[in-house]
Amino acid sequence: MTMNSNASQANHHSFILTGIPGMPDKNAWMAFPLGFLYTLTLLGNGTILVVIKVDESLHEPMYYFLSILALTDISLSMSTLPSMLSIFWFNAPEIPFNACITQMFFIHGFGVVESGVLVSMAFDRFVAIRDPLRYASVLTHGIIGKIGITVLIRAICVVFPVPFLIKRLPFCHSNVLSHSYCLHQDAMRLACASTRINSLYGLIIVIFTLGLDALIILFSYVLILKTVLGIASRDERLKALNTCLSHICAVLLFYIPLIGVTMIHRFGKHLSPVVHTLMANIYLLLPPVLNPIVYSVKTKQIRRRIINMFQRKMNWT
């Protein structure tokens, strides 16, 4: 009876988020680097969105998908921003239980959305290289809109059970989380009841969404490579492959940290808490910061439009 009472209270109480493990006095030193990274994320992805919106020559399927990716990266960053600011800027690590669950839903949800967008972009590259003459007619505005809605609905349906799976658990142990934001696997380990269902559902999500997406992307590039090797001209082959470089970088930026975080959570329990925190922050902060930089550097059309935009601003001033 006491256990149930304590669990009920804990379920409606709060969690304590962790800044730099074992070094809470150093949290203030992280405030400015994190602020810089969030600013860079907003500026970079915001610039991509503005450039694509303003320049009509970029109103093509590839750039529409890039816009969706930029919006997803901004949304993912905004999901972690409140708790990061509360810890590193205001030294307020406590987060209400329901707020933690809400943040958890958005972080995992936008993670699944980003994976789905990367699959869509792989399909876009496949169509562009395999059948360039029908590219615009296959990926019409309507089709792109339907793909975007499908990706979003899939993420909502997949992540929707997570808050309820966490809320049913009794939390009668420590309420200190190991990260500066709420993750399902992190909160789950604090429960004082069996978490087998949560673990199983988390594994199913990883295999049938993120894992399946990775396989589809890999298969798409096998088909792309097969098509490229069938092109007679060496210059045309290089040109076709060059259009995929930015997407390949975005895929690596998303999946390598994700695999690292997953492996550390499963098999790296003996590692220092600093390693866990570092990998978790890299997983959520690195792709939104670097994706716009990669696309700006690797995509000639985007790079040229950004340079022109800044040159115009300089001339006006």
Automatic annotation (TrEMBL):
GO terms for cellular component: plasma membrane. GO terms for biological process: cellular response to lipid. It is found in: Cell membrane; Membrane. Residues 44-295 form the G-protein coupled receptors family 1 profile domain. Coiled coil: none annotated. Keywords: Cell membrane, G-protein coupled receptor, Membrane, Olfaction, Receptor, Sensory transduction, Transducer, Transmembrane, Transmembrane helix. GO terms for molecular function: G protein-coupled receptor activity; olfactory receptor activity. It holds the Pfam family 7tm_4. Signal peptide: none annotated. Belongs to the G-protein coupled receptor 1 family. This is Olfactory receptor. It comes from Mustela putorius furo (European domestic ferret). The lineage of its organism: Eukaryota, Metazoa, Chordata, Craniata, Vertebrata. The gene is LOC101679791.
